[in-house]
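Exam revision sheet. Question 4 asks you to relate a sequence to its structure. Input first:
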Amino acid sequence: MKVFIVYASAGAGHHKAAQAIFNYFKVKDPRIDLSLLDILDYSNFLFKKNYVHSYNFLIRYALPLWAFVFYLTYAKPIRPLVNLIGDMIDRANTKKFASLLIRENPDLIITTHFLSCEIVSRLKIKNKINSKLVTVITDFGVHPFWLAKATDLYIVPSDFTKKRLVKEGISENHIEVCGVPVDQKFLGKFNRTDLCHKLLIEPDKFTVLIVTGSFGIGPIEKIVKLLYREVQVLVVCAGNRRLFNKLKMSRHDNVLVYGFVENLEELMAVSDIIVTKPGGLTLSELLVMDLPPIFIVTIPGQESENAKIMAQYGIGRKISNLQLLKSTILSYKNNPKELERIKEKIRQMRKPFAAREIYNVVCKDSLRNSG
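Answer key, structure tokens:
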């Protein structure tokens, strides 16, 4: 059985979800002929560069413009025109990917990014490939770009997402609620006391983890100044070197500062609450870790939708006012029962074994029949 798992390297979440599926499938059944592909590697150089850098630029410096584009392309009256223009651009720039699919004609294509959905769908409609197309939606809301006519199955993170797809005209028979796949390291068993000693963290202090993606966006320095006298603060600055250097030079008590980290699961495991932004993968990771969130920044569009959906489940609050943020965190510190109430809601909706569920849904019967 030949399986392609396809992502696009625009935003880390799509890649992480694809990698999690790939890793699980690879270990679960060596019989699978498995390939992990970045669709942008099969596009022309300028398209790849512009696709990645324009996204990064808009997110960091032009959020209002990003919001305008997102909601403009969401509007039903102009969807046919948007889809037509998008399809022409994608086809012109991803010919190598289309040629690869036609040449290899895999049994199954699992995609974690909408760019590949339409390309695969178009090739199926024209009978150039007969692959089964499975789309793994990595956000809790659904932008129309995810919808493609020849999709055989949609994998979604929540019942709310499923209802959104049904509202868009997708049959329930073509939707499975499996969750968003996360790295297996988030599924381990963690001893908080041992981890605190390993990480040089005080185990008995209320601990707040601050992490806002690879850019380290948001008023993080101000938040640290408001909190460090009251709670222990762990700050992941990621690629924000300016923030990292300023916080390091400040030498605040109760504050530990990190750049890029490979042990986010350990930092989550020793934390009582996370201050973050609601990216799809971040949400799935913190849900798996039973870690109550507060959202301080949201990328307009997919992340603002994610935040609204979490609020409907009673998990996480979007707080922009920093004094309100501080008082909310301190109220959690002084009221452990409230934190436990949120954790119980998290347990009711989390999907920790999404990769396994996806395997069971899309591979098990095919492998049994081919065996």
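Marking note for examiners. Residues 2-182+352-370 form a domain with the Rossmann fold fold (CATH 3.40.50.2000).
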